[in-house]
Amino acid sequence: MLDPILLLGLVVAVLVMSLAARALSYYFRLPFIIFLLIEGIIAGPEVLNLLDPALYIEGLSAIVAISISVIVFDGGLHIDLKHIRMVQESVLKLTTIGVLVTFLGTTALTSILIDIPLEIAALFGALVTATGPTVITPIVRNIQISHRLGKILELEGVLNDAASVILAAMVFEWVAAELSGTDAVIFIFYRLGIGIALGSLSGFALRWFFTRKIAFSKQTVRLVSLTAVFACFVLSEYLGNESGILAVAIFGIILGTSEFPYKETIKEFKGDIVTVMLSLIFILLAAMLEFEDIQRIGVSGIVLVLLLVFVIRPMAVFISMWNSQIRTNEKLFLSFIGPRGVVPTSVATYFAIKLDSMGILGGQSLVGLVFLTVIITVFLSGSLSKKVAEMLEVIPMEILIIGGGKVGRILAERFDRRGENVIVVDISESNCKKCMELGIRTIQGDAGDVNIMKKAGIEHAKYVVTTTNKDDTNLLFCQIAKTCFGFRGDQLVARVNEIENLQAFWNLGIRAISPSMTTAVMLENMIGRPHLFSMCEVGGEGEMMEVKVTNPRVVGRAIKDIQFPEKSLLVMVQRGSDSIIAHGSLVLEYEDIVTIIGEGDAAKQTASILYK
User: Fold this and answer.
1) What pLDDT is attached to residue 103?
2) What is the CATH number of the domain that holds 447?
3) Which positions carry the signal peptide feature in this UniProt record (predicted)?
4) How many domains does the chain fold into?
5) What's the CA gap between 368 and 375, in Å, rounded?
């Protein structure tokens, strides 16, 4: 029987190791999951023998099941389908076509490179189709990639976990009970139906419960939500083995997409629990690793995992997204980020125990392959993801737009199309709804409330743009951004509706523009100066941008001596507090800020020449 003191000692040890992992993560700027893996291996029987999971084997399956249910639910809770309409098709293809490509490709390579039966190779192929949210979410939050890419990866991870478990369960039944034909089809659809039905029912039921006109304490909210997650998982598993993960994933996504009281309370509470459970699972499972299993696989296993990372994963991404709007550099980044996590590791351990009890060979090889895959993919993704993101230029600016009226919506849509991370804040429900219909992230609330601004992510924003039709409101929001959040004047851009109010913004160093004045200037230039107007009217196919001069090859050279794209124009050079009209004889200096207008991609090409 499991000694309660041993179990409590295990929890204390894991919490201490988790704190140490977080401290190391903060110091080295790497995902803390990497350090959890290292700590688990070092503390395990293979190195220091301070932590032996064999002593807790009776309760390990239960611990893993409980932890996975909460972790997957938390992943779903952070998915809001209203904000990711543009990526739903991509995610759907990644979790269907992508899973199939990964499964078939990995199974074929494993059977060729590793000396194990085809059935075990197929079981391994099914398990590693999952790109776990437990690993991807910290990576996404750490490097702050574009919102679109982040949501693709997070949603893929949540849904892939469920798809992987069901696929692996079907293969396991094929191995253990010779399941095939109609039975296999029934197996898949029955478990899909159970998971989707119970997850949906749980999500709508809990949302209905919390929208009743009853005041609940935070403790009650936490207890009810945690009980509902466990109940959903247990009932789904009872009705259809291996369908529980899909059920809690659907449960979380429904709540994440809904607006109801106490949503933030549930998110905060689940986030704290997930940290503990994530630490518990990774340290325990890493401690279970036996070097003998890895040695038995040999160099072929490492080659297999590298092929999985650099061949199979890119094939799955590019095949499933061949006609999508995702750019090539974004597809390359998605191809690189494919770490495997808790689900394949824990399920592989469970299957190995089952196979050993049935006298079927290959269980330990399966565990060794999965652990090797998890270790290599987590280390590669965790340590190199930020460098790869910077190299592929998928880390955008964070831009906060205050005001979701017509101007704010058009601006947000342009920024979003440009690949920037943009959030709109507006107190009007109608304006917020229109922004969300465009796929723009939106926060409804008063931008004068510091808590609303924090919720919108102002602490991570690079620019704040105020676009409301009230000048005093725009000025107030800019002052809040400066005094409460430390924004400089050049990070604030404001719409000024009345020309006489421009000076008030300029006195605070805020970059402001008057639509009336701009329109008058444009109309003036249309009369007798058609070429000047055409340079200003960039339209939907052109672009105007500012770039800082940092390329040593252009510093100290006159503009006329630098070969820029034909359909681009340098308009203005900001040097310190001076604004200089760009002319051929002007010599560029380091950290000059140049305003560029270009047709098509010409502005971006010019910017790449100036900035290195």
Assistant:
1) 95
2) 3.40.50.720
3) none
4) 3
5) 11
Note whether 231 and 151 are same-domain residues. Answer: yes
Closest CA to 445 of 464, 427, 466: 427
In terms of Cα–Cα distance, which of 156, 179, 36, 14 is closest to 95?
Answer: 156
Rounded-to-integer distance, Cα 260 and Cα 143, Å: 30
Examine the domain organization and report whether 268 and 402 are in the same domain. no
Q: What is the DSSP letter of 258?
A: S
227: closest CA among 261, 258, 260, 266?
266
Say which CATH number the domain at 597 has. 3.30.70.1450
Among residues 483, 501, 517, which one ends one of the domains?
517
Helix residue spans in 114-146 (DSSP H): 118-127, 133-143
One domain, residues 268 and 386: yes
Domain boundary among 357, 392, 427: 392
User: CA separation (Å) from 75 to 5, 50, 281, 400?
Assistant: 32, 32, 16, 25
Question: Which domain does 195 fall in, by range?
Answer: 58-392
3-state DSSP of 398-429 = EEEEECCCHHHHHHHHHHHHHCCEEEEEECCH
Per-residue pLDDT tens over the stretch 560-609: 999 898 888 888 888 877 778 888 889 999 888 888 888 777 887 888 89
Q: Tell me: do 566 and 499 sit in the same domain.
A: no
CA distance 271 to 273: 6
Report the Cα 317 to chain-centroid distance in Å: 16
